[in-house]
Fold this sequence. Notes:
This protein has 188 residues and is an alpha/beta fold. It has one domain (3-174): 3-Layer(aba) Sandwich (Aldehyde Dehydrogenase, Chain A, domain 2). 31% of the residues lie in helices and 14% in strands. The strands form four sheets. The protein has a three-stranded mixed beta sheet, sandwiched between helices. Strands 2-3 form a two-stranded antiparallel sheet. Strands 6-9 form a two-stranded antiparallel ribbon.
Amino acid sequence: AIRDDVLAILKERASAIRTAHGLTAPDMGAVNSELHLSRIKAHVDAAKARGANLLTGGDVTHDVETGKGWFFEPTILADLAPNDPAVQDEIFGPVLSVQNFETEEEAIALANGTEFGLIASVYTNDIGRSMRVAAAMDCGQVSVNDYWAGGLELPFGGNKKSGYGREKGWEGLDAYTKVKSITISNAS
Length: 188
């Protein structure tokens, strides 16, 4: 029921993101290589060709001061099928693929309906719902009403094809330990 309002807010916020060289304190910097930039563009172009609704962005851009760099416009795609590659693949670029749902169960099924499970975010005013949904999501980390990967004390890592094990926190230290059990009998 709130789809159009949410999309309007997302579009407004994404359109306001300032991309620039990292030393100028932008909202978003460049991607890591020209090859990766071309892969992001190919994903978005293919989604558009499949009928995705491009709400904003969708193209390569450059640093406004230098005219250089590997930048991609913050992009929002909507009206995609759950099995669309723009939903299923990890693009690792500023591309948001929006899906619609009507029930909590449908939202969980959509979130879990990929081979990946690194991070998820839940946005709701209902704390009980946020905890139910967060617990049901098959991923390594869930943020509620924000995105925050946490400090060194919070474990970080994914499930499924997004990784195995955890970095950071006590769980991250476990990877560097080897457990040994020693038993002693007081034999007389």
